C-alpha cells in the first residue's frame, strides 16, 4: 500500500484528523485537525517492520502472538512511516461543530518546510455521478463521516460531519455546516468507518466525488466508492473472501518493492 507515501512525497502538504475516540476511555473528546508537512521514511523496510512489531505489541490492542517471520507478510508488517511536521492545529472542544475551533498557528520558523511547494494541482476531470448500495449506510450505520477537501493554499482540510444519504437525489447531504469553517466546492472525499473498542473488527469505505452547495445546504455527489482493508464483525470465512483479492495485490506490491530495492540504489517510489 505505498500510494499514500507516494502522494506525500509528491506533495508533502498533509492533514491528520483525530475525531473518533472509540475504545480510548475519553469522555467528551475534542476533535483535532493537524495540518503539516510530511516526510516519508521507507529506506529500510526491515527496520520499519521491527518498529511496527514493537509499536503494535506495546498497544492494549496489540497482537498476542509473535508476528510471522520472513517476507511473506511484508504486505502488512513492512510499514512505510510518514512523519508530519505540524504547522497549524484546529481544536473543536468536545467535538462541537457549532462552536468556533481554537486555531493554533505555529511559529514562522516552523513553516520553512512549506516554502517552495508547488501550486495546488489542477482539478481532475469530473466523473459522472455513481450510486452504490453501500452509500445507504450513511446516516444509518454511520451517522457521521470525515469530509476532506483541499484548501486554497493546497493543504487538505478534514472534519467529521453528520451525513445522510439521499438515494432519490443520488447525493450525500451534510446535515450540519460546521461553524467557523469555510467549505469549498470541488473534489472531496467522505470516509466512513467504525470499529470495535479493542479492534476485534473494523469497517470502512471512502466516497470520492464533488462537494457542492444547493438551496438546502452542502452535499457530495458520489462518483466512486472504495472499500479499504476490512475485518467486519463476521466469521473467518467471510473475512477471507472479502479480503482475498486485496491481500493478493498487497503481496504483489510488497514483493515488487523488495525486488526494486534489492536491484540497486535509487529513489524510493513510496
Briefly characterize the structure:
The chain is 20% helix and 33% strand. By secondary structure, it is α+β, with helices and mostly antiparallel strands. It has one domain (3-42, 80-233): Electron Transport, Fmn-binding Protein, Chain A (Pnp Oxidase, Chain A), CATH 2.30.110.
Summarize the structure in words.
20% of the residues lie in helices and 33% in strands. The chain has 270 residues and is α+β, with helices and mostly antiparallel strands. The protein has one domain: Pnp Oxidase, Chain A. Strands 5-6-7-10-9-8 form a six-stranded antiparallel β-barrel. A four-stranded antiparallel sheet has the order 1-2-3-4. The model has no long low-confidence stretch (mean pLDDT 87).
| Rg from Cα | 20 Å
How many strand units?
10
Characterize the overall form: globular
CATH topology-level name: Pnp Oxidase, Chain A
Numbering strands along the chain, what is their spatial order in the largest sheet?
A: 5-6-7-10-9-8
CATH architectural arrangement:
Roll
Uncertain stretches of 5 or more adjacent residues: none
Distance between the termini: 9 Å
Mean pLDDT: 87
The number of domains is: 1
Class from secondary-structure proportions: alpha+beta
Please give the count of helices.
4
Topology overview:
Blueprint: H1 3-10, E1 13-18, E2 31-41, H2 45-58, H3 74-77, E3 81-92, E4 102-105, E5 144-150, E6 156-166, E7 171-174, E8 186-195, E9 202-214, E10 217-227, H4 236-262
Antiparallel strand pairs: 1-2, 2-3, 3-4, 5-6, 5-8, 6-7, 7-10, 8-9, 9-10
Amino acid at each position: 500500500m505505498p500510494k499514500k507515501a507516494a502522494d506525500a512525497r509528491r506533495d508533502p502538504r498533509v492533514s491528520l484528523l483525530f475525531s473518533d475516540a472509540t475504545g480510548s476511555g475519553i469522555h467528551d473528546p475534542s476533535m483535532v485537525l493537524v495540518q503539516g508537512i510530511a516526510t516519508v521514511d521507507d529506506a529500510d523496510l526491515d527496520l520499519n517492520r521491527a518498529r511496527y512489531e514493537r509499536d503494535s505489541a506495546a498497544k492494549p490492542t496489540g497482537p498476542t502472538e509473535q508476528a510471522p517471520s520472513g517476507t511473506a507478510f511484508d504486505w502488512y508488517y513492512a510499514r512505510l512511516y510518514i512523519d508530519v511536521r505540524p504547522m497549524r492545529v484546529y481544536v473543536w472542544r468536545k467535538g462541537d461543530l457549532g462552536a468556533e475551533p481554537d486555531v493554533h498557528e505555529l511559529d514562522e520558523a516552523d513553516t520553512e518546510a512549506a516554502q517552495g511547494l508547488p501550486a495546488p494541482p489542477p482539478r481532475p476531470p469530473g466523473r459522472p455521478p455513481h450510486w452504490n448500495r453501500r452509500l445507504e449506510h450513511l446516516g444509518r450505520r454511520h451517522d457521521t463521516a470525515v469530509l476532506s477537501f483541499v484548501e486554497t493554499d493546497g493543504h487538505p482540510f478534514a472534519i467529521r460531519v453528520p451525513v445522510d444519504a439521499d438515494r432519490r437525489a443520488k447525493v450525500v447531504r451534510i446535515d450540519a455546516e460546521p461553524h467557523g469553517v469555510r467549505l469549498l466546492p470541488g473534489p472531496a472525499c467522505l470516509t466512513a468507518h467504525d470499529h470495535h473498542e479493542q479492534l476485534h473488527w473494523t469497517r470502512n469505505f471512502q466516497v470520492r466525488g464533488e462537494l457542492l452547495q444547493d438551496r438546502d445546504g452542502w452535499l457530495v455527489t458520489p462518483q466512486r466508492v472504495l472499500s479499504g482493508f476490512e475485518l467486519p464483525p463476521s466469521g473467518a470465512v467471510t473475512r477471507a473472501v472479502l479480503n482475498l483479492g486485496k491481500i493478493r495485490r498487497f503481496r504483489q506490491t510488497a514483493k515488487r518493492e523488495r525486488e526494486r530495492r534489492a536491484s540497486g540504489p535509487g529513489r524510493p517510489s513510496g
